[in-house]
Amino acid sequence: MLSRILIAIVGIPLLVYILYFGGLPLFIFTEIVVLIGVHEFFHMSEIGGKRPNKLVGMGVAFLVPLAVYLTQIKVLEIGTEAVIALGFIVLMTIRVLQNRVENASVEIGETMIGALYPSILFSHCLLISYLPNGGKWLVTAQVMVWVCDSFAYFTGIACGRKFFNRGFSTISPKKSIEGSIGGTVATILALAIMDRYLGLVPDKMSFITVVIFGLFISAVAQIGDLGESMFKREFKVKDSGTILRGHGGILDRFDSMLFVAPVMYYLLKFMVL
Questions:
Q1: Are 198 and 140 in contact (CB under 8 A)?
Q2: What is the pTM of this model?
Q3: pLDDT by residue (tens digit) across 148-201?
Q4: pLDDT tens digits, 202-230
């Protein structure tokens, strides 16, 4: 419990600082999250009996945020599609030279899923940071994730299964529909408050925009959480890792943000900015 509290006391202000100011520290942080997340995924998959090519997977995962960052700072135009193509070519070449047929599609697929799941999704944090008020939007996204997760949990404890008898998902039976609704309402309110006091857009967001944003962010935050739980159930592990002590692994802490970052980026591009 003490280590959990200490990590939160140190980690939360540091995370907010990195998200708000962006730049090179955010790129380095993104790489750390991605690489540890990929390592955790491959470790879980090995426990589940899979055999991903960890070296190639880690290489692909490293190159995705690098390609996004170099493009954003206008140093070198490298599309992530080039990295993905390179990954497939290298993996297929290795298998052909090894002359191994057994489980080729499964192992290549497992490698690319493990590499791209954290890297492609989380690299959208870098894209958001270069939008107008990008730092404020990143902090807002993380706050919305925390609020959604916390209020879903406490609402579930207070009134879970009192109105809806069935659980929210068989993937995570403890989660209730009431908890999901509570997290969604709190997420919408959190966005309204953040917009009011941070000035996310010049003329404030309209009520409809706030509601749409809140609904989408809450939905994908919960899907991200359930998606990671799905992998853990498949691989029969409790946590993705132990690096954060009582908080579990990197994927346990950033599972929701992995889904929230790309959705927020495209919502901002198409609806607000």
A1: yes
A2: 0.92
A3: 999 998 998 888 667 677 766 678 877 888 899 999 999 999 999 999 999 999
A4: 888 999 999 999 999 999 999 999 999 89
Q: Determine how many CB atoms are found less than 10 A away from the CB of residue 247.
A: 17
Supply φ then ψ for residue 270, to 5 degrees.
-100, -20
For the record, the structure tokens of 171 come out as 């993937």
SS3 readout for the chain: CHHHHHHHHHHHHHHHHHHHHCHHHHHHHHHHHHHHHHHHHHHHHHHCCCCCCHHHHHHHHHHHHHHHHHHHCCCCCCCHHHHHHHHHHHHHHHHHHHCCCCCHHHHHHHHHHHHHHHHHHHCHHHHHHCCCCHHHHHHHHHHHHHHHHHHHHHHHHHHCCCCCCCECCCCCCCCEHHHHHHHHHHHHHHHHHHHHHHCCCCCCCCHHHHHHHHHHHHHHHHHHHHHHHHHHHHHCCCCCCCCCHHHCCHHHHHHHHHHHHHHHHHHHHHHHC
Which amino acid is residue 224, in one-letter code? G
Closest C-alpha to 64, from 38, 46, 45, 89:
38
Which residues face 176 on adjacent strands? 167
Contact between 124 and 257 under an 8 Å Cβ cutoff? The reply is: no
